[in-house]
Amino acid sequence: MENERKKSNRGGKRAGAGRPKGTSRLFAFRAQKEVADFIDTHDNKTGFILDCIRSSMPEKEGLQALGDVIPAQSIHSTPLPYFEAKIVAGFPIPLDSLELAQHIDLLRMLCPHPEASFLIRVQGESMQDAGIHTGDILIVDKSNRTPSKHEVAVCELNGEYTVKYVHRQADGFLLVPANKEFPNLIVGKNDDFSIWGVVTYIIHKPRM
Q1: Are strands 67-71 and 117-122 parallel, antiparallel or unpaired?
Q2: Within this chain, do residues 197 and 131 fall inside the same structural domain, yes or no?
Q3: Which residues are catalytic?
Q4: What's the rounded Cα separation, in Å, for the pair 205 and 208?
Q5: What is the DSSP string of 41-54?
Q6: What is the pLDDT of residues 82-94, one digit of tens each?
Q7: Is residue 53 part of a domain?
Q8: 5 DSSP assignment
Q9: Distance from the Cα of residue 67 to its chain's centroid
């Protein structure tokens, strides 16, 4: 009986035992030689493939938490007169002659990579000391995901989006606001973190 009792305690799955299930899935695919050779040129092949796939995916709804998001390519080009003149706080300079003006594509000037650029009307004041306020429009270049510590970036942290400075640390990242009323965000190795793009221009109305 004692042996039978011992046997009955064996087998079966213990609560909490084993590796916890994640949401990731494994995929395998074949690639033509020229594609495979190009993938081989990248040290982090998995990261490169994931970045390519993410760039083709529709934007997550969570990004809308930052504000309105508009792809730059969906905006019609509007050439505007441009005067190459230095404005000084002295005697007025006449700027009413269109013969002296060049016509430039404003969108092209502000978005050197329009196919990878987005306009985001931002909400929140966590970056106010960087000149970013609620209602401002950020032009974000998704082709740049390696910001310097002086550049503002749009980041995804555990499914939520934020606009911050990104400081690299030995054990992860530190997301730094430009407002003393907001705390730094520590990104650890167990966090789901990615840099969505880098802010190239900020458009806002003059403030008194």
Answers
A1: antiparallel
A2: yes
A3: 126, 164
A4: 10
A5: T-SSHHHHHHHHHH
A6: 545 454 555 555 5
A7: yes
A8: H
A9: 14
